[in-house]
Amino acid sequence: MDKLIITGGTRLKGDVTVSGSKNASLPICIAAILANGASTIGNVPRLRDISTTAKLLESLGASVERTGSALRIDAGPINTVEATYDLVKTMRASVLVLGPLLARFGRARVSLPGGCAIGARPIDQHLKGLKALGAEITLEHGYVEAIAKKRLKGARINFDISTVGGTEHLMMAAATAKGETILENAAREPEISDLGDYLNRMGAKIEGAGTDTIRIQGVNELTPAAYEVMPDRIEAGTFMIAAAITGGDVRINGMKAEHLDALCFKLQDAGVEIVSRDGVVRVKGPKRPHGVNIKTRPYPGFPTDMQAQFMALMCIADGASVISENIFENRFMHVSELQRFGADITIEGNSATVKGVKKLSGAPVMATDLRASASLVLAGLAAEGTTEIQRIYHLDRGYERIEEKLAGLGARIERVKES
Questions:
Q1: Residue 122, marked binder
Q2: Under 8 Å CB-to-CB from 377, ≥6 apart: which residues?
Q3: Sites of the modification 2-(S-cysteinyl)pyruvic acid O-phosphothioketal (predicted)?
């Protein structure tokens, strides 16, 4: 098992390039199931979750080959419609194969996803939508079995809550349903738009992806397509905070600043200088940031996936800040680890009060989930002395070569094997 060793106190400077989006790549790769043939998906990061998705598709009979940053997915040879617990349990997004398998083959049997460290993420909205499209759904022995005796039929579906996975799932399932499907109270994240663009490249007729109302005119079939995945906005945001927390000066290439408006506004409130020009975002950190309050919200609000990283920045801010988590009920597990650096944080309900300290001290810490891992890396970059981060397999789920990219900016960071 690997761990990271960080010697903090270095001001980050230079250029870094953002990888393709994990959260866009996963549903796009799964959507390739809908076409009988080979699709080429470009700008796909090398991440543990991507490897898990490839194994899942291969377990169904598909062929998956990587060349550089591109995956060639041939869904023609798929010969089973069952996704077992052994694969689904390791990544919740795996459940998204249910809708595409059902739409293409009329049947699917997929294990219910396992638990999630950051809180409950039920799939009731997914199943409600599939039923509305005409699927017969049964739950037995930890598996969802879906049957469509005839072609799925378009329907008007109003989500009880804004759900990214549910929106993606029903976009895929409805792409070849007979008639029109309308998704109301749909999630608006940029990754939804990216999936919509890919499905349209395959021949789907989808309008409104990225808004709260999505209209889908079902087509008879989809065909394989080539597509380039959008840049990862959460990785980009993490590098922005890396620059800010070290008082650095970093140019981030390939990111779309408009995908991170809420974060940019809060960073600017904290005294961070941000200039966006020609696809490059320059971030200059202040000598010491100001305390700023945030509340996580569905897009376009402040992203829950940036909450832990922003908290790390607030740990060294001048003044206090209140960070409210409104998406997941258990997403403060990084707090106890940040306290090991000397951070002053108290939790009450879904809010954490952070009183900024003048300096953090390096410490041995343990990652608990993906974004918590990133917050510990950021704290380690700013801290005096040496930080040792264990269980970084969480980090590898969502950040491609992060230690190499940070080292390229001057960070003293290395990956080592635990003895």
A1: yes
A2: 4, 6, 242, 389, 395, 402, 406, 413
A3: 116
